[in-house]
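Narrative of activities, Objective 1.

The group set out to show that a structural description can be obtained from nothing but a protein's sequence at a throughput compatible with the screening campaign. Below is one input-output pair from the validation batch, recorded exactly as produced.
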Amino acid sequence: MTAQIEDWQVIVIGGGIAGASVAAELADLGARVVLLEREAQPGYHTTGRSAALFTIAYGPPVIRALSRASAAAFQAPGDAMRPHPLLRPRGAVFLARPDQRATLEALETELGASVKPLGQAALRDMLPLLRPDYCAAGLIDRQAADIDVDALHHQYLRRLAASGGELRCGAEVLALQRDGGGWRVETPGGALRAEIVVNAAGAWADELAGKADVAPVGLMPKRRTALLVAPPEGAAHDSWPMAVDVDERFYLKPDAGKLLISPADETPSPPCDAQPEELDVAVCIDRIQRAFDLPVRRIEHKWAGLRSFVADKCPVAGYAPDAPGFFWLAGQGGYGIQSAPALARFAAALALDRAPPADVTDEGVGAAALAPGRRALAA
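Output recorded for this entry:
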């Protein structure tokens, strides 16, 4: 007897923030959606390891546009789906040594009114640990805020369920192939079929495409390392802004009573359960201690995650030119959390052949800039 195949309108593969957000938006638009996650819980990899900041002064122009269009969702009052705020005021300061002044000036020109210049005295007032001979000048984004990543992720999962969608964990995709006018997905729990498959598999998105004989987009997973260390005793660090080297060689941010520090590494890696390398940990401490008077006597916690990029570092959202019904949602780099609300709404509209949200297109985001077949990816 042939096993019965479940029929859905959309199968979303990958339960991180990209998959959860687009699945919720698709379900809100009336689609019958199932979200497949191969791990025992959603968001195990990059989403669950992110110390995300919301800022419109970060990333390439398309990311900044998506972030601006996401602001209303982050700032909306709490409701039954999201019982508490998603943002906590933080601020972000970009630091420049004397030899980095040209980079700082170029960044100020690029970011315009979203940042303000700071001199040495103001920087040390905000960041008392900053070594007096290290930093020449800086920029501040006063609107930057910490994102409650877990709350955002679970808000989308609740919305998915409320709209009739389903989340299935432990549902690794064993095979993916065309089936008549749609797609057939084989999982350990059985086969599913849908008109549309959304590839939101993060660092594994190109590998998933390979299972379907779909051309890859050239995804490049890169490892990033983070550590939690204790602040100096008596330091009123919780009110400090996030500090970012203007060339993104390190960052420091208060986090749950500790200091989160990172060398901002981007080490190419195969898709995997990323773990911190001792060399990256040592580099992190060295870079931080060159800029800050911060003795690191013990590492409280360390981890790594994968941030996935394509060649132009802009997300990929759209149907594969070589595979009808195969929709890409990948390559968000390190900006997937802060851009998720707008990108998910935009992607869901494209997937269902609806008009894209006007507030997103008003920010200058168009389908061509995100399309899998765009020239920047083919070059």
